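Dock calcium ion; give full complex structure.
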Amino acid sequence: MEIKALDETVKGWLQISRKQILAAMQQPLTVATKSNRNDLVTNVDKANQAFLIQQIHAAFPEASIEGEEGQAAKADRLAGLVFFVDPIDGTMNFVKQQANFAVMIGVYQDGQPLYGAIMDVMRNEVISGGPDLSPNLNGEPLTPPLDRPFEASLVGISGPMAIKNRLHLGELGLASSGVRMSGSAGMEFKSIALGRLGGYVSWLQPWDVAAGLAIGQGFGLVVTRGDGQPLDLLEAGVVVAGMPQVHAAFIAGMNA
Ligand code: IPD
Ligand code: CA
Ligand code: CA
Ligand code: CA
């Protein structure tokens, strides 16, 4: 797989997605709840997933697709080429703020990260990268984030986990430079890539983490389960992503 060509192709799709999303935002949204009152899906999430699946099938007929909003043939194994698609990451922000949401695509080969892209729709900013593609913002190379001590780093923590002090995350947040909560995993990974956050902890689905993990391969980001073990990209669970010192401090504190 030629990564530069994949990058061009995916960025082309994301630009079309962006235009379609901005157009759809001019019309009333159809909002439905899924598992609970804060778990939303809109007509735009569904339409954008359908669009991206169509593009992936046409360009990579051999690929499996794992997308959030149904429709996709579930990848029940990680063999071969797998695309993880989150058509709108931060649907609550999309509905309530009309900002701070992302479109994310992560590409894996036999379970190994190849490539990730995160489109910040309202800022028209795409971060992409992977093990063989240096992280870039709209094609401009990014300076790798610094590996700072935990107490000198801002960190992202899922709101419910910090507020409920799950896994000591309330206390850990107090020991950092401060906690920031964006409501979008994609925005958190973007902030880490830009050096604005040292790390992020949340309970995530595979499509929430696939793009960020792949991009992070290009700048030394460490991404594991909450117990420090390798992630299983077919299961939801606690994810700890951080530059090495922040990641190590999270794992030590959460498992103390
Ligand atoms: C959600 C966001 C949120 C995270 C949730 C995710 P969605 O994604 O990334 O920040 O805390 O766990 O489900 O559902 O809006 O795509
Ligand atoms: Ca969702
Ligand atoms: Ca998501
Ligand atoms: Ca989503």
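Observed: The CA atoms of residues 17 and 48 lie 6 Å apart.
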